[in-house]
Amino acid sequence: DARQIVAELASRGQQIEEMIVRGAFTEIFIPALQAKELALALQDHGGTLGEAVRNQVRIAVRHLVRAAYLLDWYGDLGDKTDVDSAFRVFGSAVREIGAAYDVPAAP
Q1: Are 62 and 96 within 8 A, CB to CB?
Q2: Tens digits of per-residue pLDDT, 9-61?
Q3: Looking at residue 101, what DSSP letter applies?
Q4: In 3-state terms, the chain is what percent helix, strand and coil (to 5)?
Q5: SS3 of 67, please?
Q6: How is residue 49 annotated by DSSP?
């Protein structure tokens, strides 16, 4: 179910945010790459969305996938500035996807 996938995406975003706050940058790759897989799985669940919204989701998924790889990379480097920048893109993509499926972001 697409809504469950989106809820899981929001959960991964919350996990990443908590890791950033703790400074656990080298751990970020696990939820980031899980979120990438979840986002890619949404590609098979877009049939209920209108064409314009489906295109918005595709774009957001691309941004999320790219941001997930960057979070992995920058987390390994321990660069907080770059991690924060990549997380802003990641979080924005999660919110856009959540809005398309009417699933609120995790608290």
Answers
A1: no
A2: 999 999 999 999 999 999 999 999 999 999 999 887 767 788 899 999 999 99
A3: T
A4: 85, 0, 15
A5: helix
A6: S
